[in-house]
């Protein structure tokens, strides 16, 4: 076992000795030797001091008693009072794809004019560290995120983006859904439970990813994101609705979003009925970023179970994630744990 693994075990034991309510449940019964693990069970990273760290697939539950109480309340209210709010990039999709860093719905986009790809990369390199800077006040960061998204959208229009470029970009992209996403959507669809995908990315790209990677539709899945407007020749001419960025994607955005495309391409002639959505006051929230916890802002919910996917930088981020989320899945875990959770909530055997 490497020094990184021993260091991790020491940290876990230290955390458990300090906080008796902190629970670490392994999908596997033991921590695997780094050299013996498979790629989808553990990832090899590099710590700041240059030593390796490794993690077996595991789930962290900060307060099991509180989680049990929340599950009981949601089960009692039933599926008619329930909704799922999910982030897209690195939450529904994998962080790692075949050993390579998966692309986001924004990053996968390749314009036909490479000069504009380079300009968008420059913006990313400047603003991305700001997005994750814990020292920067939220109001200041929000203004900078609006600035970043606005400039990026401007470059897409100026660079002559076409829908063909979106289709081709998705076809060649390094992006894949977590194992279990289809099963989750199917389970929720059978019970008429809405899934709202909140994304600061681009709705048109997300729909194309769903179309090409899942090859099917779900009538209960709605996308709340930035939507493009194309002319009759498939050229991008503008964006519809107000700007949705990483710090304002929440239930308030239901009122900000443009008309949604239902069934992956067929235009829905009305906006999401936010009034009926807001009557569903029990929420399962799925995200990979601490800011995703704000996706339920604007909803006066009764009970919320929050699930966080901590895909990387685990040692530095685990403490804040376990305090923020009810459940934290580590190391790019599959969606099977969430499928099990909703099955416990609404399967007949659980009633």
The residue fraction in helices comes out at: 25-40%
* Largest beta-sheet details: 9 strands, mixed
**Percent of residues in β-strands:** 15-25%
Alpha carbon gap, first and last residue: 44 Å
Structural class: alpha/beta
Which spans of ≥5 residues are poorly predicted at pLDDT below 50?
Answer: 5-57, 262-271
Gyration radius, rounded = 20 Å
- Give the rounded overall mean pLDDT: 81
The main sheet orders its strands as 1-4-15-14-13-5-8-9-10
Reading the helices and strands in chain order gives HEEEEHEEEHHHHEHEEEEHEEHEH
InterPro entries: HAD-like_sf, HAD_sf, Pyrimidine_nucleotidase_eu
EC number: 3.1.3.5
Catalytic activity: a ribonucleoside 5'-phosphate + H2O = a ribonucleoside + phosphate
Keywords: Hydrolase, Magnesium, Metal-binding, Nucleotide metabolism, Nucleotide-binding
What does this entry look like structurally?
The longest helix is centred in the middle third of the chain and has 21 residues, at 138-158. Mean pLDDT is 81; it is low at 5-57 and 262-271. With 351 residues, the protein is of the alpha/beta class. The chain is globular, with a radius of gyration of 20 Å. It has helices at 3-18, 64-77, 114-131, 138-158, 163-171, 181-190, 203-213, 274-278, 314-324, 336-346, and strands spanning 23-26, 45-46, 52-53, 58-61, 82-87, 96-97, 100-101, 195-202, 221-230, 236-240, 261-262, 266-267, 282-287, 303-310, 327-330. The strands form 4 sheets. A 9-stranded mixed β-sheet has the order 1-4-15-14-13-5-8-9-10, sandwiched between helices. Helix 3 (114-131) packs antiparallel against helix 4, helix 5 packs across helix 7 (203-213) and helix 6 packs parallel to helix 10 (336-346). It is built from 10 helices and 15 strands.
